[in-house]
Write a structure and sequence with these properties.
There is one protein chain. The chain is of the alpha/beta class. Helix content is 48%, strand content 15%. Strands 4-3-8-7-5-6 form a six-stranded parallel sheet, sandwiched between helices.
C-alpha cells in the first residue's frame, strides 16, 4: 500500500491512519524499502487530548508518516466513518508482530528508551523470543537532553545501520524526540510507549478482554493511581466532550502540522 492510499481519520485535528496490524506492518516494510527516514506514532486518547494544549505534540503527531490507532476510542471513531477496523494497533503487540516478521526479512533493530538497563533487558528478551532477529543494540538515555557529543555518538551507532528504531520514552516525549531526530539515517522510528516496561515485566498488562472493550485505562489506573489519575479521569472525559462536539459539528478541527 502506498502512503497516498492510506485512509485517514480526523480526530480532534490529529490525522489518524485507519489501518489494522496487517496493513500497518505492510506500510512499515514499505518505509524501510524506500531508503528514507520515517517515524510512526502509536496514538491514543491521552496523546490526542494532550495535543489540544501542546502545539509541539500536535505538530509531531501530524508530522509523523503514520499515527496509528493505539486506543480503542480511536478505532471506534474510525469505524463511525465506515472503516471497519477489527481492533486497535497496540504498541506492545505491534512490536512483537513486527519482530516476528523481521526474522525472515532480515531487518536490523535497535531499542532506545526506558529506565537504566531496560532497553538492554528488552533486547535480550526479544532475542529469546525471536532467535533469528538482528538486534544492532540498545540504549537507555539519561533523563535529560543528550549533549552534542552524546547525540553524535548515538547517530554513529544508528546511521545506515538500523532499519527499525523502537523508541520507548513515553508520551509526549517520544513523539517530540522522533520529530526532532528525523535527520537520523534509519528506516523507521516507532514510538511504543510503555511496551518496554510491559515486555520486561516491570508493568503488568491488562487482560485481553479489558483491552478489547476499551477498559485498559481502568486496569492501569488501579495500578498507578497517583501517576495516571489526570490522564484517565480528566483527559478521557475531556476527550469525550471534545469529540462529541466535533461529531455534532459544534467545532471543526484542522489537521495541518501547524494547527
Amino acid at each position: 500500500m502506498q502512503l497516498n492510499q492510506v485512509p485517514f481519520v480526523n480526530v480532534l485535528g490529529v490525522r489518524i491512519a485507519a489501518l489494522d496490524y496487517e496493513r500497518a506492518i505492510a506500510q512499515l516494510e514499505s518505509f524501510i524499502s524506500d531508503g528514507g527516514t520515517h517515524y510512526v506514532c502509536l496514538s491514543n486518547v491521552h496523546a490526542v487530548t494532550e495535543s489540544q494544549f501542546d502545539r509541539e505534540l500536535k505538530a509531531a503527531l501530524n508530522g509523523a508518516d503514520l499515527a496509528l490507532p493505539d486506543g480503542m476510542p480511536l478505532v471506534w471513531a474510525a469505524n463511525l466513518e465506515g472503516h471497519g477496523l477489527p481492533d486497535r494497533v497496540y504498541g506492545p503487540e505491534l512490536l512483537l508482530r513486527f519482530c516476528a516478521a523481521s526474522e525472515q526479512r532480515g531487518y536490523r533493530h535497535f531499542f532506545y528508551g526506558g529506565a537504566p538497563g531496560v532497553a538492554a533487558e528488552l533486547a535480550v528478551r526479544i532475542k529469546q523470543l525471536y532467535p533469528g532477529l538482528k538486534i544492532i543494540g540498545a540504549y537507555s538515555p539519561p533523563f535529560r537532553p543528550l549533549t552534542e557529543e552524546e547525540e553524535r555518538a548515538l547517530a554513529a551507532q544508528l546511521n545506515d545501520r538500523v532499519d527499525v528504531l523502537w523508541v520507548g520514552l513515553g508520551c509526549p516525549k517520544q513523539e517530540k524526540w522522533m520529530a526532532a531526530h528525523r535527520h537520523l539515517r534509519v528506516g523507521v522510528m516507532i514510538g511504543v510507549g510503555a511496551a518496554f516496561d510491559f515486555h520486561t515485566g516491570r508493568v503488568a498488562q491488562a487482560p485481553r478482554w479489558m483491552q478489547r472493550h476499551g477498559l485498559e485505562w481502568l486496569f492501569r489506573l488501579f495500578q498507578e493511581p497517583r501517576r495516571l489519575w489526570r490522564r484517565y479521569l480528566v483527559l478521557n472525559n475531556l476527550f469525550i466532550l471534545l469529540y462529541l462536539g466535533q461529531r455534532l459539528g459544534l467545532r471543526k478541527y484542522e489537521w495541518s502540522v501547524a494547527s
